[in-house]
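Here is one such protein, fold included:

. . .
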Amino acid sequence: MQEWNELLNDTVNQPFLIELMNGTWDEITAGDEVYLKSTRSAEILAYVRVMPQKKVFRMEWRLQIAVAVAIIFIAAGLFFFMGKDKTPQQPLQALAVEITPGKQGATLTLANGKKIRLNDVSTGEIAEEAGISVTKSANGQLIYEIKGSAGDPGKTNTLTTAKGETYMLMLPDKSKVWLNAASSLTYATVLNKEGKRWVRLEGEAYFEIAKDPVLPFAVESGGQVIEVLGTHFNVNSYQDEAVVKTTLMEGSINVGIKGTDKITRLKPGQQSSLTNGAMRVETVDVDEAVAWQKGYFQFDGKTLETSLLEISRWYNVDIEYKDNSLRTRRLAGSISKYENVNKILKVMQLAGALNFRVDGRKVVVEKN
């Protein structure tokens, strides 16, 4: 990586790099492959090696590889679909309905049943019940604080995000929770239920749990119960997905299957997957699991169906497949969550393996 950065930052190399990359880019046509493939990278590397020598300097093999990788990245556009069909694409029509990215927003349901749209209230204290103060900060964060008495452990609140919404919550113990779109978190207002800091999750959330050696933190979600003392982890338990995934960033957590005595301990970098009552553990790239929280879609290794579910939740659109075999296609690459949805779909179409048609707030997926 150090050699790579030095080569790219060396001003002597800049004119040749720019000329070479522009020339390669100009040769790409609408029908060309823009997905990464080992044979394609070999062709590019061979092309670089037969380029005429420049008088400015001799191009050594490390630079040849660096240039080849740079060309591959540009050709792929940092987002590519692993497909083989090279049929020219149909243009994606202009959207009749403007489909914008999601934004910060949620609804808080208090113990007495009162619902508060957090986008509609100003900053400051927005509720107080049973010794608990609920405040909305200037940056939109929801903060719980225990005031006066210890509060009533029987009182629960629920924070809910709709499609196209995300929100961040700070619990009374200073633990932080980022709630993804179309999700909900239910919790005791004093965060103490039967000797545990207890919450129930539906959907997806990223947790940064404050350490407490006395009260473990418990997350009930998707047929499993997670117990921690203090750590960072992500839980994906959407009901429209077959697998419940828990990914650990640091520390350790115990993941148990609800209603059984089966408990699995995760180490940093590991992910548990619960499917039909069976759990498996594997080492993963944790950045992929929390990409949504950091502001981008990460599609590496995911199916088209799973990836479009993420887009559906974030842009508040419906997905329709004209051919169900497309659901299992594999994707790779990443792109910002804050791009216009039309741009994302256009980039996905460049691979030549499928077409998208937008009808109102519905995205129709078709073969070429």
